Amino acid sequence: MSALLGEGKTKLVIEAGEERVLLRFKDTITAGDGVKMDILRGKGEVNARTSAVLFSKLMEAGIRSHYISQYDERTLLVRKLQMIPVEVVVRNVATGSIVKRLPIKEGEIFDPPIVEFFLKDDRLHDPLLNADHLRYLKLMSPEETEDVRRQALTINKVLKNVFEPKGLRLYDFKVEFGRTGSSLLLGDELTLDGMRVRVNGTGEVLDKDLYRRGETLERVMEAYLRFLKVLSS
Ligand code: CDP
User: Containing H/E element for 22?
Assistant: First the structure.
């Protein structure tokens, strides 16, 4: 029996040796800091696969991450990291929290993209952090913040290059990083739970905003499956 190292809202972390862990994707879907939660049958498998495909694309483009391989249908084998409880968001098009927080209108284009940091803390509703907060809270040094910012922007470029030829537009996404030795490595997942992807032209939503807006679970699943199919084609 392997030891359960942790459990989040959508994943289990299981011991797999000294330097490796398994990430098992659950069928849960949540929104609003976990206040809204449902079971979406098959979502774990779709998100494990989506993450595996996207981490592989990053790897092909020379971006390192914790990803090693897909272990089974809903599980990834990854390098063990000391995760930093910070959500790094990259935005290409304005939507979501930024249009509520700042005098920015839905749909405004950010060129260059905007990078934001949030404390991963549902109780505090993931507050926005600047580099001074990150340093003061001992989350990241100024050098690490700059490194993560640069990595996040490179990830954005690669993902956009993957999506654009497929007729998809990357509005924004969230990534998380962790420590291994002295370097910071991309961890966590890359799925529609944490990125906004729209069909170019029609603006059709393929991501978790469908769930946030109260669409049926069936529609959410259809969108997630369609995205994975387009990605894999
Ligand atoms: O999702 P919400 O409008 O609350 O927040 P946001 O800051 O506009 O989210 C920006 C991007 O980060 C979106 O793609 C979200 O799906 C993602 N995100 C996430 O994965 N986890 C969070 N706790 C917050 C945002």
Answer: strand 20-25
Indicate whether 113 and 174 sit together in one domain.
yes
Quick one: 97 and 190 in the same domain? yes
**Most ligand 1 atoms within 8 A of CB, residue of 86, 89, 177 to mutate:** 89
| CA of residue 2 to ligand 1 center, whole Å | 32
pTM above 0.90, yes or no: yes
- Going by CA atoms, what residue is nearest to atom 12 of ligand 1? 174
Mean local confidence (pLDDT), 106-114:
98
Backbone angle region of 125, left / alpha / beta, with phi > 0 → left and psi within -120 to 50 → alpha: left
- End-of-domain residue from the set 54, 79, 104: 79
Q: Compute, in angstroms, the gap from residue 174 CA to the centroid of ligand 1.
A: 6
Same domain, 68 and 158: no
- What Cα–Cα distance (Å) separates residue 16 from each residue in 6, 19, 186? 13, 8, 19
Structure confidence at residue 145 as a pLDDT band (50, 70, 90): very high
Q: Which atom of ligand 1 is nearest to the CA of 172?
A: 14
pLDDT tens sequence across 26-53: 999 999 988 999 999 999 999 999 999 9
Residue 1: per-residue pLDDT = 64
223 found inside a domain = no
Query: Considering only CA atoms, which residue is closest to atom 19 of ligand 1?
Result: 194
221 is a domain residue: no
CB count within 10 Å of CB 124 equals 10
> What is the share, in percent, of the chain residues with pLDDT greater than 70?
100
User: Domain holding 190: CATH number?
Assistant: 3.30.470.20
Domain total in the chain = 2
